[in-house]
Design goal:
heterodimer; A: Cation-dependent Mannose-6-phosphate Receptor, Chain A; 3 domains; 8-stranded mixed β-sheet; 46% helix; Glyco_hydro_31_TIM (chain B); alpha-glucosidase activity (chain B); glycosidase (chain B); Glyco_hydro_31_AS (chain B)
């Protein structure tokens, strides 16, 4: 078995063995199979047969890294691409160590900065770990300084935020007191209103009856007049006075000639016959109503103009209906005493409405403050100061706008309509730092696609500023935003890791 | 070599399309003057007679005068035998008023004359639409008057007819007829939101029909590029007409299929393929119109396309995300937005300011780029292409000779006239690296909108009385326009990169397009019915010579739900040329994992697909095949068009070479070893082939740099041999052999080859899989070897 193995290996790449040997000497003093990290080296004792980590199989140690996948858990091939689920560890001395998928080993593409993943592909990878490590450290340094400087600003922002919340809290307490008073006042006004209205109602009872009688009389007169008119018309058309209006009778009348061909056809006559009958059977009041409706429509148009930007037409009917349905003022005049009672009731009503409005206003204001107080402006209220502001970013085509805790949008520079890219949804960061990004969703829908949304990534900076905008996926935007509010100490792992395997 | 892909039938029944094509925008037969006229002609009422006195019979042909008994017009009739059991029937006017058009690109070469059938040439009755025609607001002047040609063909004994792509319909052709289905229409059109189960025209036209019965299969190719309608009558559908025919002929209801070809203009030129089996007729058709040249290996891998990628960073981050999520991808596609204001052969100066850098980033990780180039040219002064075309008369003209203008993506546009050899010469130069600046040898081309699509034209295409080079009317050449366009692109890519096989994806296509391009089924929808119809559509194209056919994975219109998306990826075989949905890494982890599994399976089978494409080039056999093709005498399979032979489900008797090591792109798999899957049949034997070359160049043709391996398994021995006496210096080796349905009690194996001598190999059974694995033969695929089981 040993012999076969050697032969096969020779066939694949005889050079490989030499190369492996040299590499392992160079990369570490602890002998271990290729692709294994220092911390796991002890799992591969070369003097024993190798048992897969999942215990499924035991193989001769010579079959570890022999470019054939024996273990379902890939543990026998840490240094080759033989196992689909394998992981290859590169030391990357001078920079961060890295675990890559086994599928990246010997594929002709340099994935590890030390180039150890391409040991048999013929690809010459440069070791640039030192350079990368240096710039990574510089970058970490820069960030640390930024955070240091930003922390002062953040503290100020935080103070401001806390102060704002406190002020709101004070205001809330005040409003709650005001609310109690206003409610008390409303109670009083309601009682007064009820009393005045009772008196008013009793006084008006007499007049109400009087009014009804007048109405009834008027209606009777109207009906009589209509009957007389109908009879007159009927007699006019009923040329042969047989008590029926028939089609031939109507056909003699040119004013029924709808198509103006000089003749009243049977259809035309029938049309008017039925029209006429309908007209006669309907009370005149209805035609007045229809007049009213057309006025209504006109009003409606004006109304629409005033709300141009609302896409959906508002239902404005009820408002106008009320007006139209109001009883017409009758000619009746009240006696002085009644008149006084009516006036007193009216003013009691007005006073009540006023008091009620006051209560509603206060309730609304309280709700607003409560909403504000519930908003998550960060653990130290450091993001509070961003609310109510908007920040802009321009690229060659668009102006992007971020109004924190409200919305994101996009407007072409040519000036046409603004497109909403998202509405404030939630903090959307990672488990370790929920405040590193915001999600604005439920924006306008894309053509043939989903609703737009925006992720706002927030990093530490010494001012509040949008730094870039992209659309990494269709209709999904990504804003980069820097703010002192995002400056927080992060555990810097650079130093520990760097020394891991030197 | 037959594997079988089968998908569960429930897919077929879940149909609920929310899209609808606007049928009023496209003509029915009744609205098309010549179709209406020709359809009126009843079979058996021909006014044409052969003048037997003029009959001349030579060794290879029969010629005679054909006379119209009504108007005494004379025609020349000829019937010629072509090499390979093919006949050619031609009828042309003896003294034509105007010459008739003969397609220029469909045939790969003028057929070689070599060493029976019934046809009836039908005259046309005068119809009010004969000399001019109006459709919607469009007027067709028809200066040459009526020039339609029609032919009835009867296939006695046939049970089914297949062919006539492209239609979003079932594979077996349905009976059409007045009062029922409109005839199958072949007229390349940009049909917005097309619907399935329809004989309406689509983007491509391949006028070939195969008639099939358990005993024999024959075919006809109608060599005509004008608008064509084809009525099909299968007597099994109980049509009155066919029962009449049976009555007259006195035959005892033998089944038959009739095909009635009706073309608006052009020459009558019909090729008849004598079969006798499906394999033979398809090969006979391929001998005339050619085969698809072997594509580059990467073109068979996964393509990611989206409308659209916004800028260079977008492209870079998409690829990064594929890598982060360990999903393989080979090609990124750029739709029209990469251009500077929809001016082709230019880049947006801001969003794509450094295309060369972007492309090099792609190729550094083994990927390629495909960019779109459409045939309409923006009419903008200062745009070099427009200026050149105007100055040199390269555009298609109106009937009065002025330049034709239509609307397409860029707004006002004109259309290059690819029938003019000067235009093709000019066009091909545009692809060179010094002209199309920023591109590299790793950029390939997507030719879209080449029906041609004209937003404000009749039926969204060019007016028929427009004029092309040579004085031909657009009506004569319409169905061939896309082919002429892609010939220009093909020559351009060859000219640019002479030793790399071009890759071009086209939407419009015609008979013969396979010699230059791959095609896809256009703007389909994210709908189960569209997933289902992609099978018969591509199978039909494959029978029509165009094996490299795909559909947008996930559909183009609308967004698929995740269930549909996963299924689409899972059923994804070579039918999917590109994916036009959200990148798969955007979905939840479990969806992503399923898609990854599906993609890895596709990549594992690439050697098999590549081998099939090479075999297609050598023989003309389609890469994907319907069941009736493989089992011609089994009537049970004649209507099955939701299964493709190959993949996923290995038929007993086959040996499948796979590459089971996942990689980020196919281009970095070239040195990876093979696993051979041997599915034994009832005789415990199996065989298979494997083709290997450098995956990109013409060395396989020019210098025989390839190997073609034949594997057989018999008597407990696997034998590998080279079929051709060729060689290719590959590093690929055999890492594993898996025998499905293996012999029992095997304890070891011995491999023998020249370089390794004889070595013992470990074997082990997998009880669950009922398979036997031979561990690490380690032998190169270049050398013959034997593995004997003990």
């Amino acid at each position: 078995m040993e012999m076969r193995f050697t032969k096969n290996f020779k066939l694949i790449n005889a050079l490989l063995i030499v190369f492996v040997f040299v590499c392992e000497i160079l990369s570490s003093e602890v002998p271990r199979p290729r692709g294994v990290s220092l911390s796991r080296a002890s799992l591969y004792p070369p003097e024993k047969d190798f048992t897969c980590f999942d215990g499924s199989k035991t193989i001769p140690f010579s079959q570890v890294n022999d470019d054939y996948c024996d273990c379902p858990d890939a543990s026998d091939e840490p240094g080759t691409a033989a196992c689909p689920q394998g992981i290859f560890h590169c030391t990357n001395a001078g920079h961060k160590p890295l675990n890559i998928a086994a599928s990246r080993v010997n594929d002709g593409i340099c994935d590890c900065c030390d180039g150890t993943d391409e040991y048999a592909s013929g690809k010459a990878c440069q070791n640039n770990c030192i350079e990368l490590g240096r710039s990574a450290r510089e970058e970490a340094q820069r960030k640390a300084e930024l955070i240091k400087a930003g922390k002062q600003l953040k503290a100020e922002l935080s103070q401001k935020g806390i102060q704002m919340k406190q002020e709101k809290q004070v205001k809330l307490n005040e409003l709650q007191k005001n609310k109690e008073e206003a409610e008390k006042l409303r109670e009083e006004k309601l009682t007064l209103k009820k009393e005045a209205e009772e008196l008013e109602s009793a006084a008006l009872e007499y007049y109400r009856k009087l009014e009804e009688e007048i109405k009834k009389k008027k209606a009777e007169e109207e009906a009589a007049r209509n009957r007389a008119e109908a009879l007159e018309n009927f007699n006019k058309f009923d040329s042969n006075q047989d008590g029926y209006v028939d089609i031939t009778e109507l056909q003699t009348r040119q004013n029924f000639d709808k198509d103006r061909n000089g003749e009243v056809s049977e259809e035309e006559a029938k049309f008017f016959l039925s029209e006429q009958m309908q007209a006669n059977s309907s009370p005149p009041a209805e035609s007045e109503d229809s007049q009213g409706e057309s006025d209504d429509m006109q009003d409606g148009d004006e109304h629409d103009d005033a709300h141009e930007d609302d896409e959906e037409e508002e239902d404005h009917e009820p408002e106008h209906h009320e007006e139209e349905n109001e009883e017409k003022p009758t000619d009746i005049t009240y006696d002085d005493e009644t008149q006084k009672l009516v006036e007193r009731a009216t003013s009691a009503r007005n006073e009540f409405y006023e008091a009620d409005k006051q209560v509603k206003n206060i309730v609304g204001e309280i709700q607003g403050i409560k909403d504000y107080l519930e908003k998550d402006f960060g653990p130290d209220e450091e993001f509070a100061a961003l609310e109510g502001q908007c920040f802009h970013y321009e690229d060659h085509e668009y102006i992007y706008k971020l109004c924190p805790f409200e919305k994101t949008s996009q407007q072409p520079k040519s000036g046409s309509v603004e497109t909403r890219l998202g509405t404030w949804g939630r903090w959307d960061g990672t488990e370790t730092n929920k405040y590193e990004s915001m999600m604005y969703d439920k924006g306008q829908s894309c053509w043939n696609g989903p609703q737009r949304s925006t992720k706002v990534r927030i990093e530490c900076g010494n001012e509040n500023k949008m730094t870039s905008v992209s659309e990494p996926n269709r209709c999904e935007y990504l804003f980069d935003f820097v703010s002192p509010a995002a400056c927080r100490e992060v555990p810097i792992d650079v130093h520990e890791e760097l020394h891991d395997e030197l | 070599m037959a594997l079988l892909l089968r998908y569960t039938p429930f897919l077929l029944y879940v149909i609920g399309s929310i899209l609808a094509v606007d049928k009023n925008a496209f003509k029915s037969c009744e609205q098309s003057s010549f179709c209406r006229r020709l359809r009126d002609v009843k079979a058996g009422e021909s006014k044409y007679e052969l003048d037997l006195a003029s009959l001349q019979i030579s060794e290879n042909s029969v010629e005679a005068k054909l006379i119209n008994t009504e108007v005494e017009a004379q025609f020349k009739f000829s019937l010629t035998a072509i090499a390979g059991n093919i006949f050619r029937l031609q009828v042309d006017e003896v003294n034509p008023l105007y010459p008739r058009y003969r397609p220029q690109y469909a045939l790969k070469a003028e057929p070689q004359v070599a060493n029976a059938l019934e046809g009836e040439v039908q005259p046309a009755n005068e119809d009010p639409g004969a000399w001019e025609e109006n459709f919607k607001s469009h007027h067709d002047s028809k200066p040459k008057g009526p020039s339609a040609v029609g032919l009835d063909i009867t296939f006695p004994g046939a049970l089914r007819a297949y062919g006539l792509p492209e239609h979003a319909d079932q594979l077996a052709l349905r009976t059409t007829g007045s009062g029922g289905l409109d005839p199958y229409r072949l007229y390349n059109l940009d049909v917005f939101e097309y619907e399935v189960e329809s004989t309406m025209a689509l983007y491509g036209a391949v006028p070939v029909v195969y008639a099939h019965s358990p005993k024999y299969t024959v075919g006809v190719f109608w060599h005509n590029a004008a608008e064509t309608w084809v009525d099909i009558n299968n007597s099994k559908d109980g049509n009155v007409m066919s029962s009449l025919v049976n009555l007259v002929s006195g035959s005892k209801s033998e089944n038959s299929v009739e095909a009635h070809f009706m073309s608006e203009s052009g020459v009558m030129d019909l090729f008849v393929f004598m079969g006798p089996k499906p394999k033979d007729v398809v090969r006979q058709y391929a001998s005339l119109t050619g085969v698809a040249p072997l594509p580059q290996y990467f073109t068979l891998a996964y393509h990611q396309c989206r409308w659209n990628y916004n800028d260079e960073d977008d492209v870079t981050s998409v690829v990064e995300n594929f890598d982060i999520h360990d999903l393989p991808v080979d090609i990124i596609w750029l739709d029209i937005e990469y251009t500077d204001g929809k001016k082709y052969f230019t880049w947006d100066p801001i969003k794509f300011a450094h295309p060369d850098v972007m492309i090099n980033n792609l190729t550094a990780s083994g990927r390629k780029l495909v960019v779109i180039i459409d045939p309409h040219i923006k009419r903008e002064s200062g745009y070099f292409l427009h200026e050149d075309a105007l100055a040199n008369g390269y555009y298609v003209k109106n009937k009065d000779g002025s330049v034709y203008e239509g609307w397409c993506w860029p707004g006002s546009s004109s259309y290059l006239d690819f029938y003019d050899p000067k235009v093709v010469e000019y066009y091909k130069d545009l692809y060179s690296l010094d002209k199309f600046k920023g591109t590299t040898n790793d950029v390939y081309i997507w030719n879209d909108m080449n029906e041609p699509s004209v937003f404000n034209g009749p039926e969204v295409t060019m007016p028929k009385d427009c004029l092309h080079y040579g004085g031909w009317e657009h009506r004569d050449v319409h169905n061939e326009y896309a082919l002429a366009h892609t010939v220009g692109t093909f020559q351009g890519l060859l000219h640019r990169s002479s030793n790399k096989r071009p890759f071009i994806l086209t939407r419009g296509h015609f008979a013969g397009s396979q010699r230059y391009v791959a095609m896809w089924t256009g703007d389909n929808a994210a709908d189960w019915s569209h997933l289902a119809v992609s099978y018969p559509m591509c199978l039909s194209e494959a029978l029509g010579g165009i094996s490299f056919c795909g559909a947008d994975v996930g559909g183009f219109f609308n967004n698929p739900d995740v269930e549909l998306l996963q299924r689409w990826y899972q059923l994804d075989d070579i039918r999917s040329v590109k994916s036009n949905v959200e990148e798969p890494y955007l979905f939840s982890e479990d969806v992503r994992n399923r898609i990854r599994t599906a993609l890895r399976l596709r990549y594992a089978h690439l050697p098999l697909w590549y081998t099939l494409f090479w075999e297609h080039e050598s023989t003309g056999d389609p890469v994907i095949r319907p069941l009736f093709y493989q089992y011609p005498s089994d009537e049970n399979v004649f209507d099955i068009d939701n299964e493709v032979l190959i993949l996923a489900f290995y038929r007993g008797g086959s040996i499948i070479p796979r590459k089971d090591r996942p990689r980020r792109a196919s281009s970095v798999m070239h040195n990876d070893p093979f696993t051979l899957y041997i599915a034994l049949d009832s005789k415990k034997s199996a065989s298979g082939t494997l083709y290997i070359d450098d995956n990109e160049s013409y060395e396989y043709k020019n210098s025989n740099k390839y190997i073609y391996v034949h594997f057989t398994f018999e008597d407990n021995s696997l034998i590998s041999n080279l079929i051709d006496k060729t060689d290719f210096p590959t590093k690929e080796w055999i890492e594993r052999v898996i025998i499905l349905g293996p012999p029992s009690d095997i304890t070891s194996a011995k491999l023998t080859s020249k370089s390794l001598g004889t070595v013992t190999l470990e074997t082990y059974y997998d009880g669950e899989q009922k398979s036997l694995t031979i561990r690490k033969p380690g032998v190169s695929v270049r050398e013959p070897f034997t593995i004997k089981l003990f």
